[in-house]
């Protein structure tokens, strides 16, 4: 209890911002799971991604924040919304969930939570800690540092990943291409 009180006494403006973002993130994440309308669920997921980008900015990882907004909140969420609208879900088409299904999901979720807590407690002894007296480098999460590292030490894996993405794109186009005599479904 005294550790918690000491924690709140040492909070600065950034600490309060972190706690506020964390609270909003948790409420939005709960909204993703509990929303009955899939559109509201996707909108709550977008808000969760924006809050996570705020966390990245607080951690001085501007590149990750920008990529999270562009890729996840932008492209992936548009794809989710398009899929949901394309499926045209109706209330009368939904199957009602039985109590057995609900209980099974609660049991599986609880077991997963217990397993994750056990893993985190076992791994927490192995996590290296950072000394508060260590020097702070304000350029750590900047795109310039990431680019220098990618194009010097990790150039081969970076180029291999780009070739893999090119092959995946060509494969997706070839799989999606219809032949002249194919049926349209």
Concise overview:
This is NADH-quinone oxidoreductase subunit J. The protein is built from seven helices and no strands. It has 185 residues and is mainly alpha-helical.
In CATH, the homologous superfamily of the domain at 1-90 goes by the name NADH-ubiquinone/plastoquinone oxidoreductase chain 6, subunit NuoJ
Strand content: under 5%
Query: How much helicity do the residues have?
Result: over 70%
Total helices: the number is 7
The radius of gyration computed from the alpha-carbon positions, rounded to a whole number of angstroms, is: 23 Å
Mean pLDDT: 77
What is the CA-CA span between the terminal residues? 63 Å
Order of helices and strands: HHHHHHH
What characterizes the major β-sheet? none
Unreliable stretches (pLDDT < 50, length at least 5) are: none
Report the CATH architecture of the domain at 1-90.
Answer: Up-down Bundle
Count every beta strand, where a strand is a DSSP E run of 2 or more residues: 0
CATH topology label of the domain at 1-90: Four Helix Bundle (Hemerythrin (Met), subunit A)
Would you kindly provide a written description of the structure presented here, covering whatever features stand out?
The protein has 185 residues and is an all-alpha fold. Among the domains are: 1-90, Up-down Bundle (Four Helix Bundle (Hemerythrin (Met), subunit A)), CATH 1.20.120.1200; 142-177. The protein has helices at 2-9, 13-34, 38-58, 62-87, 99-124, 143-150, 155-176.
Itemize the secondary structure elements and their pairings:
Blueprint lengths: L1 H8 L3 H22 L3 H21 L3 H26 L11 H26 L18 H8 L4 H22 L9
Helix pairs in contact: 2-3, 3-4
């Amino acid at each position: 209890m005294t550790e918690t009180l000491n924690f709140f006494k040492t909070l600065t403006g950034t600490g309060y911002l972190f706690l506020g973002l964390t609270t909003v993130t948790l409420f939005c994440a709960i909204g993703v799971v509990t929303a009955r309308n899939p559109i509201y669920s996707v909108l709550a997921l977008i808000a969760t991604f924006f809050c996570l980008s705020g966390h990245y900015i607080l951690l001085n990882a501007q590149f990750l924040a920008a990529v999270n907004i562009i890729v996840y909140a932008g492209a992936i969420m548009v794809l989710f919304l398009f899929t949901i609208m394309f499926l045209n879900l109706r209330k009368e088409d939904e199957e009602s969930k039985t109590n057995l299904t609900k209980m099974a999901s609660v049991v599986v979720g609880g077991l997963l939570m217990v397993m994750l807590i056990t893993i985190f407690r076992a791994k927490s002894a192995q996590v290296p800690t950072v000394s508060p007296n260590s020097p702070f480098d304000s350029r750590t999460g900047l795109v310039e540092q990431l680019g220098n590292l990618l194009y010097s030490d990790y150039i081969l894996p970076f180029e291999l990943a780009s070739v893999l993405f090119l092959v995946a794109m060509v494969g997706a186009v070839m799989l999606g291409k219809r032949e002249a005599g194919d049926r349209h479904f």
